[in-house]
Amino acid sequence: MRHGPPLVLKRDNGSNLNQQAVEEVLARYRVIPLNSPPHYPPYNGGMECAVRELKAPLVEKILASGSTLQPQVQAWAEVLAHELNHRSRACLHGQVACRVFQDAKPALKAYTLRKRREIFEWINELTRTLVRVSAVHTQRQVATAKRLAVETWLQRNGVIAVTQNRKVLPIFPEKTAHN
Predict the structure, then answer these.
(1) Alpha carbon distance 128, 135 (integer Å)
(2) Nearest C-alpha neighbor of 37 from the set 177, 179, 143
(3) pLDDT band at 21 (very low <50, low <70, confident <90, very high)
(4) Contact 38, 148 (CB under 8 A)
(5) pLDDT digits 0-9 by tens, 60-89
(6) 4 phi-psi bin (left φ>0, alpha ψ -120 to 50, beta other)
(7) Each residue's pLDDT tens digit, 81-137
(8) I need a surface site. Which of 26, 29, 78, 81 has the fewest CB within 10 A?
(9) What is the rounded distance in angstroms from the CA atom of residue 14 to the CA atom of residue 177?
(10) Are 106 and 3 contacting, i.e. CB atoms less than 8 angstroms apart?
(11) Which of 106, 60, 105, 58 is nearest to 82 (CA)?
């Protein structure tokens, strides 16, 4: 990992990302997994958009050239990713992702293994509290409590800002909703 491990890995519920080998690597580096709610694609909207932004021009290039040789496709993907990382983004107030990331690199050092352990403990304690006070009964509800605890820590510590898109995200659909 060139820039060190991320603090959080946001992922969907695919078996390729939710398996023992991945869990072991995440635990070793104290990376917090943040799984999407099942059957709720808008939660991954940004990632889905990024995949489309990369995939569509790449497929177009492959079809136009007729080449599907892995080294050629990989080279095209790398050039396209570079271009996308240097494109001005409205969501970054006109900045480019590469510059934002480079400017944030010193902050990565703040998440030492000790600090990560403290964060894990805080999240796990909030998860246990949510499970207890919400009378959680299913594994899906436990996963929801964990996701809410991770999101709460990230918001309280200024790592993420939540924006409303006039839709409600179900947390405990049997009882209540959270937006």
Answers:
(1) 11
(2) 143
(3) very high
(4) no
(5) 998 998 877 888 888 999 999 899 989 998
(6) left
(7) 899 989 998 878 888 888 887 777 666 667 888 999 999 999 999 999 999 998 888
(8) 78
(9) 24
(10) no
(11) 58
